[in-house]
Amino acid sequence: MTQAFASDWDVPVKTRLTGFDLITQPMLNKGMAFSQSERDMFRLHGLLPPHIATIEEQAERRLRVLRAFSTDFERYAFLRDLQDTNETLFYAVLVRHIEELLPLVYTPTVGEGCQHFSEIWRKPRGVFLSYPNKDRIREILADPRFDRVRVIVVSDGERILGLGDQGAGGMGIPIGKLSLYTGCAGIHPELTLPILLDVGTNNRERLTNPLYIGWRHERIVGAEYDAFVEEFVSAVIERWPDVLLQWEDFAGSNASRLLAKYRDRLCTFNDDIQGTAAIAAGTLMAAINVTGVKLTEQRIAVLGAGSAGCGISSLLLRAMVDAGLSEEQARSAFYLVDRNGLLVDGMEGITPAQMPFVQDRHAISDWVVDEAGDIGLLEVVRNAKPTVLIGVSGQAGAFSEDVVRAMAEGVRHPVIFPLSNPTSRSEAVPQHLMEWTDGRALIGTGSPFPPVQWQGRDIPVDQTNNSYIFPGVGLGVLAANARRVTDAMFMVAGKVVASMSPTATDRNARLLPPVDQLRAVSLAVARAVAVQAQADGVAEACDQATLDRRLQELVWEPTYRPYELVK
Questions:
Q1: CB 3.0 to 4.6 Å from 255: which of 307, 360, 497, 555, for a disulfide?
Q2: 177 annotated active-site
Q3: Which pTM was predicted?
Q4: Residue 385 among the catalytic residues
Q5: Angle of the 544-554 helix axis to the 518-535 helix axis, nearest 10
Q6: Which of 103, 524, 200, 373 is nearest to 513 (CA)?
Q7: Which tens digit of pLDDT belongs to each residue from 73-104?
Q8: Could you tell me if 188 and 3 are in contact, meaning their C-beta atoms sit under 8 angstroms apart?
């Protein structure tokens, strides 16, 4: 069976499958929406109730069931089952109710989905490449079902959100991410493939759980791990030379290293590093519409100096240099705080990614600190008086009242982004941030939060989430036929999101476009990314009309098509 896209939605799907074999295929199943003639042709009478439904009726029926559950995890499991039963209906519900369903399909609920993935696993989706099958990777990926794949999201499950090692349960992340590629950017599900590199787990709960579905072995590391990843990447390049590969939720010790190793060998990026950086930069640029503090005048404190924190800092540094600062001036504006305190020169264990953001000890020699040695976040805030505070530490409550109040004393409108996921790992609760800053904070969070109550008003909390970035980046890469992904493509993605901020016309408005506009945001990001790919020399040049046609052809709307029986 071959699916079609925007240019041929009305062209019938041709298939040899009939009866039960047909309706058990998620991408083919229409449920009760099969027409009378299709029921005759494909021998579906008796397998389906007699009522012939529209997709709108089906969506309403599913929503009623969804909303009746008592917990979000139950809703997550229900949606996963719907995706594995009737994929078109799943996306019809997701696209039309994206604001309601985004927190269920992805963060924060996907975190719980990963923790309990073994308990709710029912039907195959994606590919598990386990270490014992390291010599079968090419054979597994050769399946004809994967012939049309153009986007892969891969994880090894070691650093799932802020929850740590979930082993094979980490497959929930690639599945969820690719659902957003389709739901937000319209990339057809047949073009996507979630992959989990099952190299074991060090999570004792998983290893001792009799229901755990993964390889029961401690994680392989070092040369064995690298050889396994190399075998995987080589097989991917051989199977799909033009694929877009997204690395997702790898531990910090591997994330930056793997990106650097492979970014010039295939079209690839790491969303935790580059996507997080782009949305943080875009949201900060939107906040400037309110604060009036130029990008070149920002002082940025980052709690968490791993791959995400360094990725955010690197992109913002480049933006500040582009805005007119020298690189030395821009570097001095960053204060990265890790588990051992502020990064300063001479500190042991500084990684290459952290090196550009190490503070000169002489520059901070006049700081007032409680005691010599490690300089904590509170001391950084009191002395550096940052205009921006970003959290990617995974430490719930790390933005304490003392820290936030100290920040509010230093600037009129403190910009505070507790970005760690899921909600349980957020560095601060938005309601507290608003109270501790007397209503002056500009807030962006990694996971969704309810509106903040302030002086009789409900103030929506902007979800500074990568879903504003990566679906559009993926669509732009596909439309441009880009050979590589550049940092400039993420920079322009962040700028596009900032340009669509409601604060551009109303300083009292929210920082980011509403979530229900994610499809429009993704399309705008895709156009800009495709143009930037051409400017960067990683895609062949084409005119705007050609690019717009390619985008239109790629964007799939989840509607049912007529079927024809192939005899």
A1: 307
A2: yes
A3: 0.95
A4: no
A5: 140
A6: 524
A7: 999 999 999 999 999 999 999 999 999 999 99
A8: yes
